[in-house]
């Protein structure tokens, strides 16, 4: 018995180290826990309803990553921010790629396609002009690729069409006639049916609101125009006719004035206008959209029209015989071109083509030598947009005697 016990004890002594070795070996052979996989992932939001220019805000939702490289799909524009923003100035389709990387260089890549919409909706910018020689309205498609201007002609019997504006939201066109004291509406942007919206003969005690009218504009969903003694406004259908601001000695300014060209700074809600210098004191004025703050900002100017864009006013000053750019902040002027031979009734700056346009009605009233001109917004690169060679044929002859201008899309 004693011998058996000794043998069993020796067996256990021999077995225990082996068991320890086996157990230790099993523990040392186990694999370390797996690292989390790197996953590249992101969401994004578009400003301006995705219409160019649109700022895209990227939200990084990657997993197990510590560094990032973004490629926005535009001229090698990249970022290493975790949650970057990027502004797409132009419309188009862009592949955005995110590379997410861990500290040990493990990485993952993901790509999403972002669509930035065309602000013009596939349409071309256009320039409307009224013509005293033809009594009609003409629309030029501003297409740099066209070898000759594409022109649509419509309307008739406009005697002194000193104002025109396109309401793109409702696809109506408005023309104001100073001689006949009428405001017309066309119910389409091209070849629309013409109707009389306001007639001085029908206005009763408000007839003064259509004395020698000029410079019609659509501002914040209403029509505004200048007339003898003030600026007047109505709903787009001609109803709710009322004075916006009337000038008298009671206001301390502009008694008996005639605002001609009108332009609007939407950001600051300020209306600018040129006062008639033929019968009155001239000058360029501003007034807030609520009717307050009327003041002259440039004295002595003799302009038929003005156009506001990006802190600057564009106008042709008969007094100085120059086309002029006025910087509102610095109160400085830049003269960029000599004045045409006759009074300029149309001037407009276009943010789409980034050019300013003006009319040169020529020296002949029959419309045989008129022009429409343009320049960069800084006054450089002056070009002929339309001359008599490419003018529309009226009757048997090409005719161009342009007056008022308006911008549109077609």
In short:
The chain has 410 residues and is mainly beta. It has one helix spanning 2-29, and strands at 42-46, 54-60, 67-71, 78-79, 85-88, 92-101, 107-116, 125-131, 136-141, 150-154, 161-167, 172-177, 182-186, 194-199, 214-219, 222-227, 230-235, 242-246, 259-265, 270-275, 284-288, 295-298, 306-309, 312-317, 322-327, 332-338, 347-350, 355-360, 371-376, 383-386, 393-394, 397-398, 402-409. Helix content is 7%, strand content 45%.
Q: How would you summarize the topology of this molecule?
A:
Blueprint: H1 2-29, E1 42-46, E2 54-60, E3 67-71, E4 78-79, E5 85-88, E6 92-101, E7 107-116, E8 125-131, E9 136-141, E10 150-154, E11 161-167, E12 172-177, E13 182-186, E14 194-199, E15 214-219, E16 222-227, E17 230-235, E18 242-246, E19 259-265, E20 270-275, E21 284-288, E22 295-298, E23 306-309, E24 312-317, E25 322-327, E26 332-338, E27 347-350, E28 355-360, E29 371-376, E30 383-386, E31 393-394, E32 397-398, E33 402-409
Task: Walk me through the structure.
It is a single chain. The model is unreliable at 18-26 (pLDDT under 50). Helices cover 7% and strands 45% of the residues. The protein has two domains: 42-116, Immunoglobulins (Immunoglobulin-like); 125-409, Neuraminidase (6 Propeller). The chain has one helix at 2-29; strands spanning 42-46, 54-60, 67-71, 78-79, 85-88, 92-101, 107-116, 125-131, 136-141, 150-154, 161-167, 172-177, 182-186, 194-199, 214-219, 222-227, 230-235, 242-246, 259-265, 270-275, 284-288, 295-298, 306-309, 312-317, 322-327, 332-338, 347-350, 355-360, 371-376, 383-386, 393-394, 397-398, 402-409. The relative contact order is 0.10. The strands form nine sheets. The protein has a four-stranded antiparallel beta sheet with strand order 4-3-6-7, with no helix packed on it. A four-stranded antiparallel beta sheet has the order 10-9-8-33, with no helix packed on it. The protein is mostly beta strands and 410 residues long. The protein has one helix and 33 strands. The termini are far apart.
